[in-house]
C-alpha cells in the first residue's frame, strides 16, 4: 500500500482517517531508529518484547500542569503503520549496501498489530514523570515508533497547555481566537496549532483549512490593507445599500458623513474632517459587502479621532437600514485604555440614539498578546470581549518545546533503568500503572505510580505515597475517589477504546482542569502537584538502581 497524499488523508468524512495528517508516516522518524532496527534484527532480537514509557520531566511555561494531547494522532499512526514499496526503495538506496536484503523484506511486512498501547485520556491534566503512554510490543516495532510518537505528543501537548493557560488568564467569558497561521512554524505547525489551541480552550481560528478539517469555528475581521486600499469616497463603485425591510436603496456615503458630523461633536467635540475619508470609504465598502456582519479595524490612522468615529458613523447608518454592526478590532496602542474609550463612546452613542445594543458592541484586541499581557490588562481594567492571538500562542514563545521522552522500562520481562547524575532524570523501571487519588472535596490530591501487579488503591483505605527519590518524603492518603489513569487503546491491531471527538477532548480539558486546585494553576510560583510511587515501586526502583550503578573507587 502506498502512503496517501496529505490531501487524500484529510478529505472525506470526519472519520479517524479523515483526521490523519498525511505526513505522519513511518519514515517521519530519525534515521537511528531504522539503523537500530537493522542491528536488532541482525542480533536476532526480532522476538524480543519491550515496554517503553512516554513522559516529560517538567511542566512547561514555569507552570505546574500540562495538558496531554496528540493521542488520537498516535493511534492513527499505529493504524497506518506500514512501510510502502517506495519507502523500502528509498531505504535501500540510502542505508549502507551491507544491509542484508531479507531485512527489507522483514520491514516491508511490519505492522503495529502486536503492539499494545495504554494511555491517559487525551485532554487530561498530567504531571511530570507520569507515563502518558505505555507502549508494549516487539522491541523492533516499539523502537521504530519513538520519534513519530514524540513529535505527535510534544507539540500537541505544549500547544494545548499554552492555550489552556491563556484561557485561565482570560477567564471563561472572553472569546479567544487563534490568529497564528502566518507566524507558525510552517504549514503543519500552523495546522496543529489551530487544532490544539481549540482543544486547549480557544473558541475559533482564522485558519480556514483547520476549520474544514477539524470542524473548528472559523472567525475573522479584516487587515490594515483593506483600510489603506481606499483613499477617498470617489473610489467607491457602489455606495448604495438596501433597507432591510423596505428594500429601498439608500446612499451610505451621505448618511455616514451626516452621522460622522453629529458624532464628532458628541464624542470628541472636534472637527469631523480630522477623521480619514479613506478609512470611512473602506468601512462603507466593507459594510456594503457584509451588512449583517460589519466589523471594522479602527487603528489604522488614529483610534479615537478617526477609527472609532468612522466605525460608529457606519454602524449608525447600517442601523437606520435595519442592520446591527458587530464591533471593532484594535491592533495597536494601549489596549486597556483604547478599549475603555471605545466602550465609553459606544455607551454615549447608545444613550444618545436610544440603541441599548450599541453599548455592547464587540471589542476585539490583537497585537503581540501573550499570557502576561492578558494578566496585565486584567489588572488595569479593560473592556475587551475578544482576543485575537497569533505569534506568542502558536510559537509558544515562552517555552518552545515540551521535553517528552520515550524510555525503555522493561525488556523480555526484565526491568530496565536509565541512570543519570541528575536524580530527576533516572527512569522508573518496569511495567507500571497510574492512579489519581482525589480528596473529599473533589480535588486531585496526588498521582500514584505502582508496579502493575500491585493491587489497586481503594477508596477509603489508607495508602502510602512516597516521593520517588527522597526517602524522607512520604504521606498516607485516604482517597475519596480513585481514578485509574490508563485505558488500553490499542491491541491486536485495533482500537480498543472509543475515541472522543475534538469537542469532547476540549471539554475533557476543562473538566480535568477543574479538579486541579487553584494554587497549582496560578501563574506566579504555582504549587507543584505531587507525583508519588508506591512502597513496592520505591523499593523495586532503588534496589535496581543499586544493582545497576557501579561502585566507584576513590584514589
Ligand atoms: N495596556 C497594556 N498593558 C500591557 N501591555 C499592553 C497594553 N496595551 C498594549 N500592550 C502590549 O504592548 C505591546 C505594544 O506593542 P508595540 O510597542 O509594538 O506598540 P504598537 O502599539 O503596536 O505600536 P505601533 O503603533 O507602532 O504598531 C504589544 O505587545 C501589546 O500587546
Ligand atoms: O500579533 P499576533 O499575536 O501575532 O496576532 C496576529 C497579528 O497578525 C496580524 O497582523 P499583521 O501585521 O500580520 O497584519 P494586519 O495588517 O492584519 O495587522 C494581526 O493584525 C495581528 O496583529
Ligand atoms: O481576522 C483577523 O482579524 C486576523 C486574522 C489573522 C491574523 N490577524 C488578524
Ligand atoms: Mg499586527
TrEMBL record:
Name of the molecule in the record: Nicotinate phosphoribosyltransferase
Enzymatic class: ligase
Annotated ranges, domain Nicotinate phosphoribosyltransferase C-terminal: 431-540
Domain of life: Eukaryota
Reported function: Catalyzes the first step in the biosynthesis of NAD from nicotinic acid, the ATP-dependent synthesis of beta-nicotinate D-ribonucleotide from nicotinate and 5-phospho-D-ribose 1-phosphate. Helps prevent cellular oxidative stress via its role in NAD biosynthesis.
GO BP term, example: NAD+ biosynthetic process via the salvage pathway
GO MF, one annotated term: transferase activity
GO cellular component: cytosol
Pathway membership, UniProt: Cofactor biosynthesis; NAD(+) biosynthesis; nicotinate D-ribonucleotide from nicotinate: step 1/1
Keyword Magnesium attached: yes
Organism, scientific name: Cloeon dipterum
SUPFAM superfamilies: Nicotinate/Quinolinate PRTase C-terminal domain-like (SSF51690), Nicotinate/Quinolinate PRTase N-terminal domain-like (SSF54675)
Nicotinate/nicotinamide phosphoribosyltransferase domain boundaries: 327-427
Amino acid at each position: 500500500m502506498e502512503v496517501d497524499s496529505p490531501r487524500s488523508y484529510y478529505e472525506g468524512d470526519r472519520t479517524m482517517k479523515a483526521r490523519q495528517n498525511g505526513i505522519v508516516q513511518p519514515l517521519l522518524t530519525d534515521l537511528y531508529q531504522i539503523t537500530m532496527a537493522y542491528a536488532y534484527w541482525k542480533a536476532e532480537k526480532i522476538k524480543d518484547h519491550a515496554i517503553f514509557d512516554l513522559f516529560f520531566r517538567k511542566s512547561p511555561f514555569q507552570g505546574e500542569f500540562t495538558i496531554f494531547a496528540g493521542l488520537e494522532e498516535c493511534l492513527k499512526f499505529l493504524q497506518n503503520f506500514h512501510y510502502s514499496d517506495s519507502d523500502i526503495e528509498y531505504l535501500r538506496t540510502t542505508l549502507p549496501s551491507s544491509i542484508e536484503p531479507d531485512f527489507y523484506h522483514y520491514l516491508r511486512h511490519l505492522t503495529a498489530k502486536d503492539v499494545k498501547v495504554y494511555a491517559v485520556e487525551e485532554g487530561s491534566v498530567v504531571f511530570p514523570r507520569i507515563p502518558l503512554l505505555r507502549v508494549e510490543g516487539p522491541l523492533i516495532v516499539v523502537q521504530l515508533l519513538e520519534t513519530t510518537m514524540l513529535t505527535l505528543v510534544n507539540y500537541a501537548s505544549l500547544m494545548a497547555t499554552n492555550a489552556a493557560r491563556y484561557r485561565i488568564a482570560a477567564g471563561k467569558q472572553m472569546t479567544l481566537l487563534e490568529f497564528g497561521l502566518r507566524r507558525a512554524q510552517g504549514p503543519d505547525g500552523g495546522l496543529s496549532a489551530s487544532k490544539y489551541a481549540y482543544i486547549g480552550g480557544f473558541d475559533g481560528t482564522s485558519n480556514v483549512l483547520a476549520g474544514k478539517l477539524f470542524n473548528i469555528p472559523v472567525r475573522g475581521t479584516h487587515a490594515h490593507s483593506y483600510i489603506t486600499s481606499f483613499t477617498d469616497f470617489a473610489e467607491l463603485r457602489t455606495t448604495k445599500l438596501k433597507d432591510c425591510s423596505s428594500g429601498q436603496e439608500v446612499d451610505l456615503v451621505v448618511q455616514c458623513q451626516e452621522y460622522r458630523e453629529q458624532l464628532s461633536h458628541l464624542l470628541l467635540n472636534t472637527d469631523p474632517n480630522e477623521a480619514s475619508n479613506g478609512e470611512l470609504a473602506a468601512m462603507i465598502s466593507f459594510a456594503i459587502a457584509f451588512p449583517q456582519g460589519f466589523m471594522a479595524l479602527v487603528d489604522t490612522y488614529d483610534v479615537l479621532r478617526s477609527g472609532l468615529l468612522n466605525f460608529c458613523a457606519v454602524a449608525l447608518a447600517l442601523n437606520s437600514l435595519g442592520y446591527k454592526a458587530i464591533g471593532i478590532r484594535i491592533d495597536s496602542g494601549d489596549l486597556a485604555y483604547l478599549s475603555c474609550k471605545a466602550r465609553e463612546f459606544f455607551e454615549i452613542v447608545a444613550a444618545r440614539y436610544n440603541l441599548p445594543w450599541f453599548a455592547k458592541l464587540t471589542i476585539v484586541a490583537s497585537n503581540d498578546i501573550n499570557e502576561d499581557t492578558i494578566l496585565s490588562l486584567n489588572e488595569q481594567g479593560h473592556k475587551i470581549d475578544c482576543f485575537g492571538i497569533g505569534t506568542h500562542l502558536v510559537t509558544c514563545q515562552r517555552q518552545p518545546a515540551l521535553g517528552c521522552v520515550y524510555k525503555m522500562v522493561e525488556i523480555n520481562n526484565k526491568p530496565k533503568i536509565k541512570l543519570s547524575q541528575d536524580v530527576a532524570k533516572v527512569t522508573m523501571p518496569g511495567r507500571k500503572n497510574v492512579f489519581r487519588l482525589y480528596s473529599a472535596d473533589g480535588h486531585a490530591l496526588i498521582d500514584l505510580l505502582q508496579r502493575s501487579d500491585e493491587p489497586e488503591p481503594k477508596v477509603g483505605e489508607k495508602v502510602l505515597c512516597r516521593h520517588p527519590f527522597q526517602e524522607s518524603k512520604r504521606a498516607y492518603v485516604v482517597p475519596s475517589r480513585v481514578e485509574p489513569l490508563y485505558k488500553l487503546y490499542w491491541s491486536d491491531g485495533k482500537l480498543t477504546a472509543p475515541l472522543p471527538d475534538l469537542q469532547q477532548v476540549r471539554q475533557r480539558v476543562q473538566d480535568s482542569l477543574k479538579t486541579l486546585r487553584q494554587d497549582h494553576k496560578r501563574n506566579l510560583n504555582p504549587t507543584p502537584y505531587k507525583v508519588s510511587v508506591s512502597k513496592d515501586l520505591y523499593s523495586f526502583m532503588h534496589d535496581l538502581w543499586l544493582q545497576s550503578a557501579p561502585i566507584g573507587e576513590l584514589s
